[in-house]
Every structure is written in C-alpha cells, then in structure tokens.
Amino acid sequence: MRNLLPLVLLAGLVPGCVSKSKYLAKEREADDLRGQLTAAQQARARMEQQLRELEEQNAQLKQRIEGLSGDIGQAEQDKRSLTESLAQMKKTLEDLKRAQAAAEKRAQAFRELVAKFKSMVDAGKLAVEIRNGLMLVKLPDNILFDPGKTNIKKEGQAALAEVTKILSGVEGRKFQVAGHTDNKPLAKGSKFKSNWELSTARALTVVELMIKNGMDPRRLSAAGYADVLPVASNDTEEGRKQNRRIEIVLVPNIEDLPPMEDTKAQS
Predict the structure, then answer these.
(1) Cβ 92 vs Cβ 141: under 8 Å
(2) For residue 120, what are the CA distances in angstroms to 113, 124, 157, 165?
(3) Contact 178, 247 (CB under 8 A)
(4) Using an 8 Å Cβ cutoff, are 267 and 154 in contact?
(5) Residue 129: its pLDDT value, please?
(6) To bridge 252 with a disulfide, which of 16, 55, 256, 263 should be the other Cys (CB 3.0-4.6 Å)?
(7) Are 169 and 147 in contact (CB under 8 A)?
(8) Is position 50 within any domain?
(9) Residue 141 shares a structural domain with residue 198
(10) In a domain, 25, yes or no
(11) Cβ-contact 181, 227 below 8 angstroms
(12) Residues 227, 241: Cα–Cα separation, whole Å
C-alpha cells in the first residue's frame, strides 16, 4: 500500500499539468491573434488614410485638369482670335497697298495731264483740277460761249480742238462733259426754259465738237447740272463767273473704285 500511494498521487497530478500547458498555449495563441488583429486594424487605418489622401490628390488632379482644360480652351480661342486678327490685318495691309498704288497711279496721271495742258493752263484757257476724287479739265464759259448762248466761239473752238487732241491720247479713259451755270435766271426771250436746259445744251454742243475733232464718241457722255454744283459763291460777279463753266471729267476706271467688300461694309 505504501508503494502504491506515490503512484496514485503522481497519476492525479499529470492531467492537471497537461491542462495548464494547453491553457498557456491558448493564451499565447490568443495574444498572437490579438496582436495580428491590432496590426490588421492599424494596417487598415493606414490604408484608409492613404485612400483618403489618394482621393484628395485625385480631386486636386481633377481640378487641375479642369483648370488646364479651361486654359487650353481659352488658349485655343485666343489663338483663333489672333489668327483672325492677323488675317484681317494682312487684308487691311493689302487693301492699303492697293489703295496707295492706285493713289500713286492717279497722282502720276494727274501730273502727266497737267504737263500736257501746261501751255493752255499758263495762257488761262483752262485749269486741271482734282475735285471730289475726280480729275477734270475746267474751261470757263466766256472762252466757249457768249452769255445765254450755245454756239461755241472761235477762240473756244480752237481751245477745244487742242483739248480733244490731248485727251484722245489718254488711253483707257472715258470722259463726261458737264455744263454748269450760275444761279441767275435766263434772260427773257431765251429759247431755254431753265439753266438745266442751257447747261445740258452747252455740254452736248461741246461733245459734238469733240467728236468732230476726232474723239471716239464711245468715250464721251454729256450732263447738265445747272447751278446745283457751284465752285464759288453766287453772291458776287466773280463767283458767278467761276460757276459758269464746262468741265470735262475723267470717268474713273473700275480699278479706281473701292472693293465691293468695302462698299458692302459701309452700307
């Protein structure tokens, strides 16, 4: 019996030791799991923080992209505007160059015309002028006509013969002969009812004489303006004398006129 007692006590102690070791193992396992859980939670928190930062960066990038898109759109619009402005400036420059060339051409033609008529200008038989953009040869009526008459005087016939010879040599031009009077009513008994009829009849007489002297009739036209286009005051005799005149106007060629686009823009 004495020999069996220690064995019984030993047998009772062994199961207790085994349960404690399992418990301790489970404790360690639980601690490990709690550590892993804590690490996982911390990792999740870090990932969530990183996700928020990435979302914030994404929002900022999106905002920058939208801003850049707006800048690009504005830049493209500015580029189109600059391109249009440049094209308009080029067109304006070309128009100015053409206008300058046309003006120089007209100025040269005027100088040449003045040179051709120099002797007659110096003699006081006529004047060469530019008025309202038109070149014209002005002859006072006292050289051509007696008051209220349409028959051209000998002195006027000689002057017109010389004028016709010079103008016939001006190539590529047509001419309008325009009659002008002062504002005084016609004398009683005149065969003309008004200054309109008188000015027109005088212009026609000049046209007929120019044709007779060799001018191509296809290059001529006649007009009467009565007293509506004075070049001086009709309040004085000197002014009325200046207003009584025949003008031979050089009709502008098509290249002298402004482009159709300019006329449309002004209408």
Answers:
(1) no
(2) 12, 6, 14, 13
(3) yes
(4) no
(5) 92
(6) 256
(7) no
(8) yes
(9) yes
(10) yes
(11) yes
(12) 12
Range of the domain at 148: 117-256
240 CB-near residues (< 8 Å, 6+ apart)? 182, 183, 184, 232, 234
Q: How far apart are CA 105 and CA 92, in angstroms?
A: 19
As given in the structure block, the two tokens for residue 228 are 């509506």
Which regions of 89-242 does DSSP assign to beta strands (E)? Answer: 127-131, 134-140, 174-180, 220-224
Which tokens in the block code for residue 31? 């601690």
Burial (0-12, 13-18, 19+ Cβ within 10 Å), 9? exposed
- Identify whether residues 69 and 150 lie together within a single domain: no
CATH of the domain at 197: 3.30.1330.60
Same domain, 153 and 208: yes
Same domain assignment for residues 99 and 126: no
| Contact predicate 261/185, CB 8 Å | no
Q: Say if residue 221 is exposed, middle or buried (CB neighbours under 10 Å; 0-12, 13-18, 19+).
A: middle
**Taking a C-beta distance cutoff of 8 angstroms, is the pair 113, 170 a contact?**
yes
The Cα–Cα gap between 74 and 142 comes to 72
pLDDT, one tens digit per residue, over 140-184 is: 988 999 988 999 999 999 999 999 999 999 988 999 999 999 999
| pLDDT given at position 259 | 55
Element (H, E) at 113: helix 4-116
- Residue with token string 């600059």: 82
Let me know whether 202 and 231 are in one domain.
yes
How many structural domains does the chain have?
2
**Chosen domain end from 88, 107, 126:** 107
Whole-structure pTM value? 0.62
